[in-house]
Amino acid sequence: MSEANITDKRDLSDGGPSEEAPSRVSSPPRKKKQKTNGAVGVLSHPAEINEKYVEKSFKDCMRAVFQDGVEATHIGTEAAVITNPFTCCVLPNFVKDERFLKGLKEELLELDFNNKSNDLYKFQQSDALQNFTSLYITALKKLLYEDFLSWLREVTGIPFINTFDLTCSKYNYTDVLLCHDDELEGRRVAFILYLVPTWAKKDGGLLDLFDMDEHGQPKSVVKSLVPNWNNFVFFEVTPKSFHQVSEVLNQDKCRLSVSGWFHGPTVPRPAPYIEPRCTLTPHVDTQETLFYEWINESYLDFGNQSEVQDTFSDESEIQLSRFFEKEKYEAVLTQLQNSDIRWKSRGPANKRHYKSAELTSLPPVIQECLSVMQSEHMFLLLSNFTALRLHAQAPCSDDDDDDDDEDEIEEVQEKTEEGLDDEDGEKVNGTRCKSASEESESKPEARIVDHDDGDEREGVTKERGEQSDKVQDGDVHEQGTSRKDETDLQDGVVIKMKREASTPRCRAEVRKWTHGCYTLLHDTDTEGSEFALDASVFFNTHGVSQATGGFVSYIAKGEDEELLSVLPEENSLSLVYRDKETLKFVKHINHSYRTSRGSNGNPQNSHCAFYELYLVYYE
């Protein structure tokens, strides 16, 4: 697409648009009226290219500039060829008679538009215009795919074929198309014809062009083109052509355009860049008393842990409110907002954009919090919450003896009260069990996060029962260790053990989310190659909603349907177990997050940022 991606072979079934992108978690399309399927009459205002652009002298000049890669502006037409960061041509006043464009705009606005929304974009799109035969659309197709295509062959030297794509797009307030390169088999040149009102940079909706880093990944925006009425923009689709449509910021203007691709022989492209795998570490040594100071005591009660595990075993996800003790949570939040933490932008833009803290710059209270989340006690607690093998003395789940599960956990719990054996043979106290009478009066809620389907609740791994079989087969383990159980006697306690032990491990990150942040699905995601437990605790989430973005969306690989959506909530631990066929992304945080107001009319989030302790645990 001219302003749409398809680096991971995502595309629309109708051939796609140039400023749109393929459907992954797209909203369902509305019924189409198909009003404009018959051309009647003759145009009183013909569709013709500006006569200055068809003059031989102009074409000769553009051919030399376009093919030789020399940046230039043509005096008299203001046509420009940009070569940095990649070759892009701008033809102002492209159509000779503006009365034709006005008629075309009116006809286009009569079409039904489909709401399109997934990890990459949010906007509205028409059906493929090549399937319409109305008066102005038919004339536009002739102008583009006969008159201009002949012109383009002369200027670029590309041997185009007669395959083409054409759609109309509407970008309204908060609509966006994030960074992509348009590369897909057969696409050679992307184009956009703008039909916008008077437009300024402050309105957003710019065509941003990215340069590249040493790995061939998008680095930063080096050129931005403001949409203008009757401007025609085109560029060759190459591994360098990373671009985006920036978010529309004006609530009163619609960014209307017609866009598509010209097709030709496929050009070889380099192998995709594979990012290095994140470093994983075993648990860290943390004082026992420190762990108990941080975790809400209700979650240390065995009865509550059993309830959490029952729910998690059915759903593969849960959200635990008031997870940290209140004073600890508030201390971390204060430091996140006010300390001199060094925040580094995480990219590249075709995969993610958010801020990550340099761990060495974190103040002591946040470092302490991270050590608790990576402690042996936390690994054991998460094992009790999820029945995953995140600790050597956690019980092993087995569908054939589910009735024994609770007894196993009780045996392990009794043992952890007496103390766990560390590697040196010394006792280390584990996650303690409290009686019901000792529970906090304000018992935290352990609840399921919302699903879109409402009635039927489906875990992120489709069915937990299916996943249990996979776990027993050893699919969780990088080394392929056996999950076949055997019994082992330790200090008089019978515990199900794996025949070959693996080392549970994790990674941790402190993330800052602001307007414009997001993560995207991509084919080269190394993290998604293993089964994993995602764990997030959020801070300062006032003003975050489904409308603002910032929520985490889980989908099945190759499917459009969303399995699960996790909306960040204050001091809530979100746990989601995902398999190798489950993908996730954080929805782009749009401008409405900055402007959201409470019932009193004041901004809901004066800092315009929320924070996340993000950890991933592996068995």
Automatic annotation (TrEMBL):
Family matches, as InterPro entries: Oxoglu/Fe-dep_dioxygenase_dom, Oxoglutarate/Fe-dep_Oase_C, Pro_4_hyd_alph, TPA1/OFD1_N, uS12_prolyl_hydroxylase
Residue stretches of biased makeup (Basic and acidic residues): 1-13, 435-451, 457-487
UniProt key word Metal-binding: yes
UniProt region (Disordered), positions on chain: 1-41, 395-492
Keyword Oxidoreductase (UniProt): yes
Top-rank taxon, per record: Eukaryota
Ranges annotated as biased composition (Acidic residues): 397-411
Family, similarity comment: Belongs to the TPA1 family.
Protein name per the record: uS12 prolyl 3-hydroxylase
